[in-house]
From TrEMBL:
Chain ranges of the Putative endonuclease Z1 domain: 405-634
InterPro entries (UniProt xref): P-loop_NTPase (IPR027417), Put_endonuclease_Z1-dom (IPR018310)
Lineage, highest ranks first: Bacteria, Pseudomonadati, Pseudomonadota, Gammaproteobacteria, Alteromonadales
Keyword Signal applies: no
Official protein name in the record: Endonuclease
Pfam families hit by this protein: Z1
Residues annotated as transmembrane: none
Molecular functions (GO terms): endonuclease activity
Swiss-Prot/TrEMBL keywords: Endonuclease, Hydrolase, Nuclease
């Protein structure tokens, strides 16, 4: 696309920002009038393309999220606004618009950052204060943009010292500095301020909308903080007319240098610095900032240093930004000590950020993109790695080849790059991620093997792609066409155009390693007439924390951790994929897909819980207690105590929760026992005088007595690995409620609508099918990892809910998520649980199958030939929601079941702690 197109686009969007939304004809007339100012203007095709792009962006909405405040919150911002000149924010707002953010998203950012700023300390208040809060976003959803906006507003309001603690890696700190340079500072901190080249200073980003004022920066995109540089810049700090900003790495040496410098200045009689209102932004706050106690000494050291830093100032604010707040919520709000003071629990506020509706996130990929009956939209499974590149490998492992699935992923990336070029996105960056090992030597081997694959393809394309049909005799080009037919033919139907463009599109593709030993990926500012970068990035932990790969399109992911924070942060494929979302593909093992789906549901529930807490006027401490008692917290609890290697007890609440046997025992006696129990339960349902009705999921019985359900649970032979369905805690929760809340039940016997009937449970049922993780069979249990690590189908918790209540719950969900009545939605099951009159027991008869492509695996022979019984339970909101029951977790056994937690080699390196 030519430069006139981009210029007209910027002008149109600037002009529309403060205007009411225009009709289709009005928009096109406005675009046409702007285009005539720049001869030769745009042709009809370009004019229509621009109109459609703007219409699409105008339809993108973003909610304000939820706010939970601590006690004693006193708003101050509204009264102070008349005296605040929004210099830095106005520049940043214009930059966001120029960078293409939708108008509604910018306005939401304005409101949200006001909401956060108003909960920070009042910089005009001349008395000691200390505020602690947390902002919960989504992975790759724009948290950096949000806190950059907050920094701009805080500077306008009077904060004079702003510290951003970026991630533990140099490349992430550098990337964060670049974004602060662009959004807040307004000039390139890597260049000498004031030096003139061709009559122009090194003004960038927001500086183009006003460069007469600037913050003082004690760090640059090249240099982290050091005392000698800070001392040499003392003259610039002056009387703090403009704010001082630092972007530092989360590193114990850097933090100690900063602490020493501040202490030295205050000891020498310069109290001015520590008397300034200070804002500390802790990016990726769940990483290394938490005082894990059991962990390595230096990790705890960082926690203490952050607390020491806050204690130095008479007026300080700590704002933790994270997309995975589980660890932060587990901070003890009462933890205090003489040396470091209070811990970092967000006692004053917790704010949840809603992602814009064009966000390509976990819900979209692992819930909406995984229909129960159809093929996944974006996900592909890795099944061929074990003999070539096993998930668990040693430091001296030798990689001689790469799996075919990785070669296919590389071919997909090269094709996607080509299609994007043909769509007019040649100037856009395009990246592929390979995350298959946390060991740096193995990453280098993977890089070398993939480089060989790419060079082979390039050579074939260079020599033969111009030969038309004859080019298909080249096996590499023939293979590329096969991948196009399987993956992209519906997205771009003309292979001849792809083949003709291949060489020019992929020639500059490079394969690089990204870890502590490597350099920083360079992504120049995208502009018409230039060519975007094409990277295939191989890495581990450095690619799992905050670092953004521009234009990430294809991912090959081979990691086996099931920890919430680690898995979600590894999801670098989340973000915004406007214009090429249809080309994105993610390869990963079946089990990883299941874990991601499970965690996506748990994360959504956490955000919903935050909204419920806001309505109830709850405090952060109350929210913390609610999250800690969530059933999914068993994983986090065990992770937090993993180093102790002992049995731990976790209190869990089951009010408004869904639990199910995602893992079942395949011991013959267990299978036989559980089938007998299910047969007896079903017989009691049919023999009793209960209301029976057919529904889309099978046969539903209404009004079943508690004793019938309790008898089933009392005899159930639970797989030890299915922690949540241990029957002792479940029955302990139910028994005190047997005379009121759970006296009557709905029981659903699930049966498909098509298939072969089976009467082993005493009634004709068409069993559902779920494929299993074959590796679990060696532990004598089956994990219904399937697509979502769930037995239940979406929407099943609606069974038995009053239709009027269900409709109202759906309307409320639409309203809360700004959805129109005509938009097709997949409603989360939790909305029905909240309006249930009775608990629901779901009985599944499941035919287990091996994953596709693994039918011949010897482990598949252990899969029972006949269906097995599983169950789920939807429990409504209790009148006694604070009641909890205790689950026992043996962390040693936990490690055996789920794998030992692996610290990344980058994290363990002394330079990065």
């Amino acid at each position: 696309m030519n430069s006139i197109f981009d210029t007209v686009k910027d002008m149109v969007e600037m002009g529309l920002f403060s205007q009411p939304r225009k009709s289709e004809s009005e928009l096109r007339e406005f675009i046409k009038s702007v285009a005539t100012v720049f001869p030769p203007g745009l042709n009809d095709e370009e004019l229509e393309k621009l109109a459609k792009e703007i219409e699409f962006k105008q339809g993108i909405k973003a909610g304000l999220g939820a706010v939970v405040d601590g006690e004693g919150f006193e708003p101050w911002l509204d009264d102070a606004k008349a005296s605040i000149t929004p210099y830095y924010w106005s520049r940043y707002e214009k930059l966001l618009l120029q960078n293409g953010l939708p108008k509604d998203v910018i306005r939401t950012t304005d409101k949200v950052t006001d909401t956060i700023l108003s909960r920070l300390g009042n910089p005009y208040l001349e008395k000691q204060w200390d505020r602690r809060g947390m902002v919960v976003g989504h992975v790759q959803s724009g948290k950096t943009a949000n806190y950059t906006g907050l920094i701009c507003k805080a500077a306008d309001a009077g904060y004079r010292l702003i510290i951003i603690i970026a991630g533990i890696h140099t490349n992430l700190r550098n990337q964060t500095q670049e974004r602060i340079d662009e959004g807040f500072i307004g000039f390139d901190s890597g260049k000498e301020w004031g030096r003139v080249v061709g009559g122009r200073k090194y003004v960038i980003g927001a500086g183009n909308f006003g460069a007469e004022r600037r913050p003082v920066t004690l760090t640059t995109r090249i240099h982290d903080f050091n005392k000698s540089r800070a001392d040499s810049d003392r003259s610039q700090i002056g009387d703090y007319v403009e704010p001082v900003v630092l972007v530092i790495k989360k590193n114990h040496r850097t933090l100690q240098n900063l602490l020493d410098w501040l202490k030295d200045n205050s000891a020498s009689g310069d109290q001015q610095m520590i008397e300034q209102p200070m804002l500390l932004i802790d990016d990726e706050a769940d990483n290394a900032s938490i005082n894990t106690k059991y962990g390595k000494k230096l990790i705890t050291t960082i926690n203490g240093q952050i607390r020491d830093l806050l204690k130095l100032f008479h007026r300080s604010c700590y704002v933790a930004y994270t997309a995975t707040p589980f660890a932060n919520i587990f901070i003890d709000p009462d933890q205090d000590d003489d040396m470091h003071g209070e811990d970092l629990f967000p006692a004053d506020f917790i704010i949840g950020l809603d992602a814009p509706d064009n966000y390509f996130g976990a819900t979209k990929v692992f819930i909406d993109g995984l229909p129960d009956d159809d093929e996944p939209q974006w996900l592909r499974t890795i099944q061929d790695n074990e003999d070539i590149l096993p998930i668990n490998h040693k430091q001296d492992f030798i990689l001689n080849d790469v799996p075919n699935s990785l070669i296919k992923a590389v071919r997909s990336f090269l094709l996607a790059r080509t299609i994007r070029n043909l769509r007019g996105e040649e100037h856009k960056h395009c990246s592929m991620l390979i995350n298959a090992s946390w060991r740096n030597p193995i990453q280098k081997q993977i890089r070398n093997r993939v480089h060989d694959v790419v060079e082979t393809i390039k050579n074939s394309v260079r020599l033969n792609a111009s030969l038309g049909e004859a080019a298909l005799s080249d096996p590499e080009i023939f293979s590329l066409k096969q991948v196009w037919e399987e993956e992209f033919a519906d997205n771009f139907a003309d292979w001849s155009k792809i083949q003709a463009q291949l060489h020019d599109a992929i020639a500059a593709t490079s394969v690089v390693v990204v870890n502590k030993d490597s350099g920083f990926l360079e992504y120049p500012k995208e502009k018409s007439g230039s060519k975007g970068k094409s990277y295939i990035a191989v890495g581990g932990y450095a690619l799992s924390r905050g670092l953004t790969l521009e234009g990430l399109t294809i991912t090959w992911f081979l990691r086996n951790t099931m920890m919430y924070d680690t898995l979600m942060q590894m999801g670098r494929w989340f973000g915004y994929r406007t214009g090429y979302e249809d080309l994105c593909r993610i390869w990963m093992p079946d089990e990883a897909i299941g874990w991601y789906s499970f965690i996506a549901n748990a994360t959504n529930e956490l955000h919903d819980e935050l909204k419920d807490m806001e309505k109830a006027k709850a405090t952060p401490e109350q929210f913390g207690l609610a999250v800690r008692s969530h059933p999914a917290s068993l994983l986090v609890t065990a992770r937090n105590k993993m180093g102790s290697g002992r049995k731990i007890i976790s209190s869990v609440g089951l009010s408004n929760e869904f639990i199910e046997t995602s893992k079942v025992s395949i011991a013959p006696k267990s299978i036989e026992n559980n089938i007998r129990l299910a047969r007896e339960l079903i017989a009691k349902c049919f023999d009793g005088e209960f209301h029976k009705e057919s529904c889309k999921w099978g046969q539903l019985f209404v009004g079943i007595d508690f004793d019938v359900v309790d008898y089933f649970l009392s005899g159930w032979d639970n797989a030890e690995q299915s922690i949540l369905t241990k029957t002792e805690p479940v029955r302990a929760y139910l028994r005190p409620r047997k005379d009121d809340e759970v006296s009557k039940w709905d029981v659903l016997i699930v049966s498909l609508n098509k298939g072969t009937f089976d009467d082993s449970l005493g009634v004709e049922i068409i069993p559902i099918q779920r494929y299993v993780c074959l590796d679990d069979l060696k532990h004598n249990f089956m994990s219904f990892s399937g697509k979502k690590m769930r037995v239940a189908s979406r929407g099943v918790e609606k069974a038995g809910v009053d239709p009027i209540k269900a409709e109202k719950a759906e309307e409320e969900y639409r309203r809360n998520n700004q959805k129109t009545p005509t938009e097709k939605l997949n409603y989360p099951d939790g909305i029905y649980r909240k309006v249930r009159d009775r608990p629901l027991l779901i009985i599944y008869y499941v035919q287990a199958t091996p994953p596709k492509g693994q039918e011949s695996d010897p482990k598949a022979e252990r899969i029972p030939s006949s269906p097995v019984v599983a169950w789920g339970m939807s429990l409504p909101v209790s009148n006694k929601p604070s009641d909890k029951v205790e689950y026992l977790v043996n962390t040693i056994r936990y490690q055996e079941m789920f794998g030992e937690y692996q610290e990344d080699e980058d994290l363990l390196a002394d330079d990065h702690i």
